[in-house]
Amino acid sequence: MVIEVCCCLGLAANVAQLAGLDVITLVKVIKNRVETVRQNKEDCELLAERADMILDLLRRVQESKVIEDPDMWKPTEGLKSTLRRAAAIVKSCQEDWSYAYRFCKGGRIARELRKVLKDLKFYILPLIGMITIINHDQNTRYYYIPETDVVKPQDASANNAGMLVALEETGLKKFTLSELEVATDNFSLEKQIGIGAFSIVYKGQLNEIPEVAVKRASYVNRIPFDQLENEAKIISKLQHTNIVKLLGYCSQEREKILVFEYMPGRSLDSFITGERAEELPLDWCKRSQIVKGIADGAVYLHKQCEPRIIHGDLKPGNILLDAALKPKICDFGTSKALRPGQDMDCTGIVVGSRGYMAPEYKQGGCVSLKTDVYSFGATLLEIIRGSRIPLSTLELSDESRDFGPLNKWAWELWRGGNLMEFIDPSLHGETHSAAEIQRWVQIALLCVQLGPEERPDMWDVVLMLSSDSTVILPKPSRPAYY
């Protein structure tokens, strides 16, 4: 009780010391303190990121001359109060805590951190709206803040001790090999629902779960094990509505197996080039729902996780659909978890899928967040076209045909104002959506630009997808693989 009272008094004293400081100074204080925090480091870094975002937004509003002084913004006093609380909490996280102090204080500080993070969102969203209305030029920066707070993945084990060690601390269920053999009829051919380069996926039935997807590593060489271990380490702590959920694992004898939630809608690919493309063509409402879900999932990986994650192989075949056709990103075998301060990962090894690979990755083996943006753009073009193959009469180079088959066609039609020729014929009857569909082709072209610096961030993409026709989009240049 004494320790808790001291904690409350200490936090109040910290807040009082910050009284009178302006927004800019408070943000600087928070960022400086976060550099030396000892407790709740990940949440403190996220808090600093949101505070810095607010400052950037305020500066942009000030530059618009609508608000000459950020302190004249109506909710500024409430914002200052929230930032003072944030700075005080971060200061508390700089301290070394004894066991007793941690026991009494740790839970309260964690709750305060979550509350402040949530409060900061209420100041970010109005500023985003103001900037969207004010700026109708090509230099507009778009921002995205998630509707709900997220659970961030923990850092992968530095010693790479294998899937078993990596997953034992996650709390995921550990299945025995015999359980999974029974669930899949001894991994029978009839239960196969997917075959990848390094694994086979089976539909299974467990006692407590009526339907699961069981992903079993192939035995060609060590690579499948490495890929499944990498996927397990990355996906085990991801929690997002547009990321497929890992339910459990098996690491027994020579087996490496992951158990996922089952997606009855199968892959998006089957609706584009598979048997269901003609039998059950998706209307625009369903396609737009799928596109926005993929974009939300990518933003989660790029911006809301710590460490940030590059998926590395976004494509329709790695997008699963549930019964309501909600998309979920899967297959993290080649994904990369970025170290703090790192923006790319260069291994010199290219592992990806033709048609979705950014040119800089194909040429040099360097992946970045912008390579995912390229893959998203290629996927969006495919969803709108309903095919990955352009008209046979279109002249394409070998490289364009293999790596960017829709880029040239879409860009030529966009530049000539004839985009209806590009859009899936099954959508031509949806005249009320024609303008939005054509607008989304332009967004896709922005994503498949040749240089990474020319492509938007994924959170820019999310806001562009949700904006109406009054917001003027940047004009794309000639795309990659032209």
UniProtKB/TrEMBL annotation:
Record-linked CDD domains: MLKL_NTD
Classification via SMART domains: S_TKc (SM00220)
Binding sites annotated in the UniProt record for ATP: K215
Alphabetical UniProt keywords: ATP-binding, Kinase, Nucleotide-binding, Serine/threonine-protein kinase, Transferase
Matches recorded under SUPFAM superfamilies: Protein kinase-like (PK-like) (SSF56112)
UniProt domain Protein kinase: residue ranges: 187-471
GO MF annotations in UniProt: ATP binding; protein serine/threonine kinase activity
GO biological process, one term: cell surface receptor signaling pathway
Pfam families linked to this entry: MCAfunc, Pkinase
InterPro entries: Adaptor_Cbl_N_dom_sf, Kinase-like_dom_sf, MCAfunc, MLKL-like_MCAfunc, Prot_kinase_dom, Protein_kinase_ATP_BS, Ser/Thr_kinase_AS
Protein family membership: Belongs to the protein kinase superfamily.
Stated name of the protein: Protein kinase domain-containing protein
Species name: Oryza rufipogon (Brownbeard rice)
